[in-house]
Amino acid sequence: MMIKKVISTRKWTKVRRIVQFSIISLFLSPLFIVAVEGDNFFFGSLGSSTFFGIVLSDPYAALQVTLASKKMNLAYLSGALIIFLFYFVLKGRVFCSWVCPVNTLLEFTEKLRKYFKAPDKIYNRHLKKYLAAAILLLSFLVGVPVFELFSPIGFTMRNALFTFGFGIWIIAAIILFELLISKRGWCRYFCPLGGFYQSLEKQECLK
Prior knowledge:
By secondary structure, the protein is mainly alpha-helical. It has helices at residues 2-32, 59-69, 74-90, 93-99, 101-112, 127-142, 146-150, 152-160, 167-180, 185-190, 192-198; strands at 42-44, 48-51, 54-57.
């Protein structure tokens, strides 16, 4: 029974890897697939993108933008509703485990911890939900979508598109934090987007 479970887990891991790298390839596709006439079939980021003319928006980013601007963009919010319903049905941790490029990167970082002893500091598992709520409030107060300014998720994709900048230091800091201080610390305790999706379900937003 245990052997069957291990085999099943490995199969799902392979499927998840295929999905993870397929999504990364999709976001990199504008670099390699140039439309002869009109726009590419896909363009954008995890925050907001267009897929065959359909606008899709990250619900958390949409909330930040709406609160910051104090205005409602129906097209933008409609795209956010599509994504929200998708993750509401499949559970929010699908984003963290199958879609988020930072999680994909940190899964490989986690393997490095096997080669040396490092502490694993524990924090409040609900901290990221509090951070998610605080960022929404701060976005409303300062008039800027706060998390989008320093989101390592956005920086990971932009760096993959060869636009290295300040974001590379944020990603490096997270990698060092996870290697030397807390195993999967960013995803478990501090990611506001993970906290937002975690609030959609009782289970933790992590594989």
